[in-house]
């Protein structure tokens, strides 16, 4: 059974789908972090050295098990050779 098939099965459950949608932005952000590091061709260890931190901190950040400051996120992006921008988007509430 493929990962995509398992995901489809899980998302058929309304509660699972609602929680997935609630966390979707976080998942996308983590994917962006991983993509930056991959495009930079860096291991977690190499990135940690560039950021003057421990590999375990990079691992926690990339797993979504950290609450990083804006400064940490900027440092991560810059160490990978990227700029980081913040944009806002108005939420539409369907009532």
Q: Can you walk me through this structure?
A:
This protein is mostly helical and 95 residues long. Helix content is 66%, strand content 0%. It is built from five helices and no strands. The protein has helices at residues 3-11, 14-40, 44-51, 55-63, 70-79. Helix 3 (44-51) packs across helix 4. The longest helix is centred in the N-terminal third of the chain and has 27 residues, at 14-40. The mean pLDDT is 91.
Overall average residue pLDDT = 91
Order of SSEs, N→C?
HHHHH
Major sheet description: none
Low-confidence parts: none
- Between the first and last Cα atoms, what is the distance in angstroms? 38 Å
Q: How many extended strands?
A: 0
Give the strand content: under 5%
Global structural class: mainly alpha
Count of DSSP-assigned helices: 5
The dominant shape is globular
Oligomer: single chain
Rg is: 16 Å
